[in-house]
Write a structure and sequence with these properties.
By secondary structure, this protein is an alpha/beta fold. It has 11 helices and 8 strands. The protein is globular and about 60 Å long. It comes from Candidatus Andersenbacteria bacterium RIFCSPHIGHO2_12_FULL_45_11b. InterPro entries: AdhesinB, Bact_metal-bind_prot9, Lipoprotein_PsaA-like, ZnuA-like.
Amino acid sequence: MNRNSLLITAALILVLGIGIYAMSRTAKTPAPHSPAKLQIVASFYPMAFFAQQIAGDKADVINITPAGAEPHEYEPSTQDIVKMEQANLIILNGNVEPWGDSIQANLQNNSVHIITAGEGLGSADPHVWLDPILAKQEVQKISDAITAIDPSDSSFYAANTVALLQKFDQLDTAYKNGLAICSSRDIVTSHAAFGYLAERYGLNQLAIAGLSPDEEPATKALIDTAKFVQGHNVKYIFFESLVSPKLSQTIANETGAQTLELNPLEGLTQTEIGQGQDYFSVMYNNLYNLQLALSCTK
C-alpha cells in the first residue's frame, strides 16, 4: 500500500475508531471496582518490552506488530488503528515504522500521548535499542511518559525503571568484557542494524543490505562483500530470524564461510516467544554468537 492509500484508509478507519470510542464512553457500564489499567500501544517489540517492564501490572501493553512480522514493512490493521485511538500512550521508536508520521498527523483523539523514544539518540540509523547505553535513554523516556500520565503510581514506575536500567548496565559490562579480546573485529551482517552496537564495542560492521532489510543490494555490493569476507578472513556471515537468510547464505557459499544468527530484535518469532525468550536473553545470545564468530577470549 502506498502512502496516499494508507492515509485515505487510515482516515476512514479513524472515523470508525472515533465512533467506537464515543459509544464506549456513553454506554452504561457497571462502576469498576478498581481504576482501569493504562492502555499503552507500542509500535514493535523492544518498545513493548521496555514499556511492560516499567508499567508491570498497571498497564495493558499492546505490541501492534505481530510475532514474526518485520516492523520496517508492517502496516497497521483496522483494529490497530482503533486500539491507538483508545490508548493512553503510543510509543514509537522513530524511523522504523513507515506509518509513524501518518499516525501522528491523523490521530483524532487528542488525549492520546505519543512519544518517539529514539528521537535525538542517533543519526538516520534507527536501531538504537541494540546499544545498551542508548537503550537506557529510550527506557527513561518511556518511563517519564508513563509517569506523566499516571503520577499516582510514580514510585512503582520509578522502582521498575531502576531495576531495568541495572539490567542494561549488566548487559553493557558483559559486552565490554566479552568483546575485549578477539582475533577479529569485523562482522558481516544481513542488514545495517548493528552500527551503534559495533561502535560501542569497537567492532566494524559491513552490512549486506541497508538500514532496512528489504533493501536489495546491487550486484557490485554483493561482489564487494564477498571480497571483504575473503580479504579479512571472515569466518561467519550473520543472518536474522525475521527475514530470508538467502543473501547471507549466498555470500557464505561464495566464500566458504559459515552462517550464524545475529538477532536485531525487531521482533520475536512465535517459537522464540514459546521458548520464553525476551530482549535480554536474545542480547546475551547475540553476545555468545559474536564471541564465537570473532574468536574472542571469554
